[in-house]
Amino acid sequence: MREQLAIDGGVPVRDVAHRPWPRWPIYDETEAQALLQVLHSGKWWYVEGEQGKTFEQEFARFHDAQHGVACTNGSAALEIALRALGIGCGDEVIVPPYTFVATASSVLAVGATPVFVDIEEDTLNIDPDLIEAAITPRTRAVIPVHIAGRPANIDAVLEVARRHGLHVIEDAAQAHAAEWRGRKVGALGDMGTFSFQASKNLNAGEGGMVITNNEQMADAAWSVMNVGRVRSGKWYEHHVLGSNFRLTEFQAAILRAQLKRLPEQTARREASARHLRQMLAEIHGICLPSEDPRITRHAYHLFTFRYTPEAFGGRPLSDFLRALNAEGVPCSSGYVPLYREAVFVRYARRTGTWCQAGRPQDYPNLHLPVCEQVCSDTVWLQQYLLLGDTADMEDIATAIARIQGAWGR
Ligand SMILES: Cc1ncc(COP(=O)(O)O)c(C=O)c1O
To answer: Which residues have a Cβ under 8 Å from the Cβ of 86 and sit 6 or more positions away?
Structure first.
């Protein structure tokens, strides 16, 4: 007999009032003590304290990079990296359309033009084979995003970028601790950017970081972060266009404590994802991203899978999301193609392009078919669910199987 779904009045697979999902963020007395220490020191400011500077070193070392520049958030980190590389008006930057708005709006913010290149259906990351065709004499950089915490094919991106003299900025906002062929992401290209916003795998409510192995780029990023000052300069000496993008000592203190938790949490997410993958592979119509031996650590900021309506009685994705949420499994669809966001459409309409010096971009008429397909059928599960145990993962698979059972194939 078919079980009644929770959306139809049945009992949910998971009663979250009695069996809540793992809480996020995770903290204890360590974070409390770290905050109190900063409080009582009276040094709440990056310029005066040691927490921010120490965190820069610790995070950079953890990510196999020589230099770290902490900042207010991951959006600012992208803007800092672009400015540090001298990218501005009239320049073009290649970005994927399946990402958070900041990957491309940071390009607009420095006066340059984002050029969208489609993604790979399997990995949801930028398709390196399509980059070359988008390069023009104005192109200065590529921003691959390690979406969901899955490293993009950085070897292939670097190969085309190096051939054309382009910078590579890795947007690693979702990819703390992720590894590509045994090396942490972020400093595999020229610069890498991270976010420590509340949902991220490393979190202080807000925060960001730029990492690099290039000392000059690190100094340039530090200047942009610190209102254009230079490390050896006087207080009122401003060399480049920057802003106040400084992290506070309170955030840095929390991040230092959270960084110690990250390796164990990452391992837990990976183990849960493995278990969940095994179970979901048995369910017809649930498509999982393939495994890639070059990805030696997946950060699993998100667990993603693609939904095939035909395997669920023809019901649309929106019905599936409602049903799965009702069974007690929090889930969502993700992004819309970024070039459809009003910010890009509006600027394309208003001026032909954001910067008059740039090539016009017809965002409203752009169609990147893989991104559009993926946006219509992808399901996201947030990272904190993966901090659960095997029974938690079984609830997710059970809920999906139950929906399929109720709706029929
Ligand atoms: C891929 C990506 N890039 C950039 C950002 C921007 O980070 P923040 O929210 O810290 O500004 C985010 C955060 O959502 C992100 O997911």
So the answer is: none
Q: What is the pLDDT of residues 8-26, one digit of tens each?
A: 999 999 999 999 999 999 9
74 touches ligand 1 (CB under 6 Å): yes
Counting Cα atoms < 13 Å in the Cβ hemisphere of 341 gives: 18
Is 223 inside any structural domain? yes
293's tokens: 């031996």
Query: Domains in the chain: how many in total?
Result: 1
Which CATH number fits the domain that encloses residue 242? 3.40.640.10
Question: pTM of the predicted model, to two decimals?
Answer: 0.97
Instruction: Specify the residue for token string 């259906």.
Output: 121
pLDDT per residue as tens digits for the range 107-146 = 999 989 999 999 999 999 999 999 999 999 999 999 999 9
Q: Which atom of ligand 1 is nearest to the CA of 207?
A: 10
Measured from the CB, is residue 251 less than 6 Å from ligand 1?
no
Question: What is the tens place of the pLDDT at every residue in 362-373?
Answer: 899 999 999 999
Q: Of 46, 42, 6, 50, give the one whose Cα is nearest residue 246.
A: 46
User: Which atom of ligand 1 is closest in space to residue 301's alpha carbon?
Assistant: 16
* Residues 129-164 as b or e (16 or more Cβ within 10 Å = b): ebbeeebeeebbbbbbbbbbbbbbbbeebbebbeee
